[in-house]
Amino acid sequence: MSAAVIDGKAFAAGLRARVAVAAAAFEQAAGRKAGLAVVLVGSDPASQVYVASKARQTVECGMASFEFTLPEDASQAELLAIIDRLNADASVDGILVQLPLPKHLDEQEVVARISPDKDVDGLTPISTGRLALGQPGLVPCTPLGSLMLLKDRVGDLSGLNAVVIGRSILVGKPMAQLLLGENCTVTVAHSHTRDLPAVVRGADIVVAAVGRPEMVQGDWIKPGATVIDVGINRLPPAEGQTKGRLVGDVAYAEALEVAGAITPVPGGVGPMTIAVLLRNALVAAHRNAGVALADGAL
Ligand code: NDP
Q1: Contact 16, 278 (CB under 8 A)
Q2: Domain residues of the chain, as ranges?
Q3: The whole model's pTM is what?
Q4: How many angstroms is it from 84 CA to the middle of ligand 1?
Q5: Which position among 175, 261, 277, 296 has the lowest Cβ density within 10 Å, counted as fewest Cβ atoms?
């Protein structure tokens, strides 16, 4: 038996199309475009590419994109001043600070300064608290995108055993909260977990967010389980190649033989992250402008 492959690229394209329709309706209702601001400090090439891609997709979806680039040696005060300005700017609905920041900056203070109403990355203490309390709020993009793929595939998750491998603020912890919110029985595994294979074998849903290439073996997976592979790892280049292959945290070929459904890497969770960012920005815009968003529109 071979698992169904969950096509995150296609799902993300569908989500972006729904965002574009809702963004046009928002513009009509609010008399302005929804706006997303991205702040980048420094000139890390990967971050520059990522920010450019966010900006392009924001505009393609019919929203306004505002980009701010600060030099590598920008001070904490300069960065906080930009965030204060964006918090106060009514044309900006979402603020994203590209992480990681250069080492001399206090990332926690910077993130906490973002207004929770504009926190499209869902990483402020208020957003984190709202998620834990089950209150409406903005949720980190990668775990929310993973949950969308899961629900699209499985439907009702209630009562299923879910194992999340990884407990980061960005992925593992919010993923566990989202699954609890769907009435799963959730186990969060991490680097101190004893007998991880046995823990994973009990799971109907496995979410791997570790950052270790192909760590989760095929024989750890319960037959028929749904596997969401968040990991993005680049292997060393093969002989004669300049770039290594991208792989996830799950041994894909092995898992494909056992799982009921699985996300590939690339093309699974990865494409969901920016699509959900755009979705979050538009949800924030509706709340900020007091415009109702039709149920199920996004
Ligand atoms: P972090 O490094 O912040 O967290 C990794 C987690 O994995 C930690 O909780 C760590 O445990 C746990 N871990 C490490 N080794 C083991 C092990 N041997 N067994 C069990 N658990 C282990 O990573 P992120 O959460 O930020 O990212 C995880 C992966 O997801 C990365 O590959 C990253 O590139 C990818 N990613 C992909 C995104 C996308 O858009 N698709 C977005 C964000 C991330 P402990 O807490 O004990 O140290």
Answers
A1: yes
A2: 27-115, 141-271
A3: 0.97
A4: 31
A5: 296
Q: Could you say which architecture CATH assigns to the domain 27-115?
A: 3-Layer(aba) Sandwich (3.40)
Q: Which amino acid is at 288?
A: N
φ/ψ (deg, to 5) at 162: -120, 135
CB of 168 within 6 A of ligand 1: the answer is: yes
Answer yes or no: 54 catalytic.
yes
Q: Which of 63, 64, 27 is nearest to 289 (CA)?
A: 27
Q: Which residues pair with 177 in a beta bridge?
A: none
Class of domain 141-271: alpha beta
Return the percentage of the chain with pLDDT > 90, whole number: 98
Distance from the CA of 259 to the center of ligand 1, in angstroms? Answer: 21
- Two domains, one topology: 27-115 and 141-271: yes
* Per-residue tokens: 211: 């950052």
- Among 230, 272, 276, which is best to mutate for testing ligand 1, by the most ligand atoms less than 8 A from CB? 230
Number of other CB atoms surrounding residue 111 within 10 Å? 21
**Integer Rg of the chain from CA:** 19
CA nearest 110: which of 146, 80, 138, 65? 80
Judge residue 103's burial from the number of C-beta atoms within 10 Å of its C-beta, 0-12 exposed, 13-18 middle, 19 or more buried: exposed
Cβ 157 vs Cβ 183: under 8 Å: yes
Q: 98 catalytic, yes or no?
A: yes
Low-confidence stretches of the chain (pLDDT < 70) are: none
